[in-house]
Amino acid sequence: xxxxxxxxxxxxxxxxxxWDHEIIDRPTIAYYYPNEGASIMSLLDVFGFGWxxxxxxxxxxxxxxxxEERLPDLYFGGExxxxxxxxxxxxxxxxxxxxxxxxxxxxxxFNRPTSVDEIVPLLExxxxxxxxxxxxxxxxxxxxxxxxxxxxxxxxxxxxGGILDILSSFLGPKNIILTMKRxxxxxxxxxxxxxxxxxxxxxxxxxxxxxxxxxxxxWLNVWSAKRWYPIQCDFSAMLNPNWFKRFALPDxxxxxxxxDYSIYHLDGSLAIPHLDALLxxxxxxxxxxxxxxxxxxxxxxxxxxxxxxxQAAGKNIxxxxxxxxxxxxxxxFDPKGLLLxxxxxxxxxxxxxxxxxxxxxxxxxxxxxxxxAERRNLDSLSISNFNxxxxxxxxxxxxxxxxxxxxxxxxxxxxxKKAS
Length: 420
Prior knowledge:
By secondary structure, this protein is of the alpha/beta class. The chain has helices spanning 8-19, 44-47, 52-55, 60-70, 93-96, 116-124, 133-149, 163-182, 184-212, 241-247, 249-258, 275-279, 304-312, 323-332, 347-353, 364-375, 383-392, 402-419, and strands at residues 28-34, 74-78, 83-84, 102-103, 108-109, 154-155, 228-232, 261-267, 286-290, 316-320, 338-343.
């Protein structure tokens, strides 16, 4: 039994089945909520998306101490495995190649302008040894964290970045496109160097993690008993399908073949034209589709054709959805290979929205309350309105907090009013 998750053994068995596109006893689901007295907004570090390491790259001891002190504040539901993500920013492999990371406004920027004539020797001359400050730092931090974590929580692989994304940190998007057109051989040489060294760093870090931890994890926080990694190429948004197949797809295939499993991080509407090519990769296990524009979130009905296409190709789906969309997606899609995650603001709300297969109400109380209020032209429910709704519909909240339930109803009513 794990100190922070009593059912961790069952969760791992379900995740093992999920990776192999199977189901043991119920669909996989991952959810969090703050335990009594804690707040979701104060738990970003526990989710692994704090920026303390980016601001203080060698401050792992204090950061892990803080992480461990806050772990009890969070409930890890379903197939969530408590994990610490060493967050140095998306694409820290660029720092291994010599970029000085710059933390700014809750993100890390990687930029070292380099001419096309200088890029190949620069990449070739990078040595993965103790004289490389960022390579040695990643090894040291990972060793300390993994050794300290054993038996309590998982250490995730840091975010190494995509191959062309790393190259873009040096050449910049415009120069990469021009070089693809004028000197594709230079881009190919750079890709080969970056790919080889990135896979070497991945193996070195995962070898350390496996000395102390059971399995493998990443910034995406999906535990696996075997090696895996979230592959990405944000630069693909600038490529047409032919150039994507020419300059990006071979590296994605190589990365997927290097792992036991892999999930591709498909980010933004401009990446959608590349979906068919990605689905043709036999070694690719699944897709995480992130719309990125903020209008229609993950799980929105607009994206159902994309999810159906992914499932039709036999690939897994990793999706983070709002609580109200949680149960809906399990009803519309094959639960095999479907992993949905969400965050609740309280245990009461978790019980309101969770699917029936995990003893939830599937949002039915919220749905009925919105319909009830709409029939009465109410923009919000007062305490007396709320009690009248419960009595009229013979609803027993059981151990759910009435105040939090009413707050959630009024929050949804407010969203509806804005939308109209």
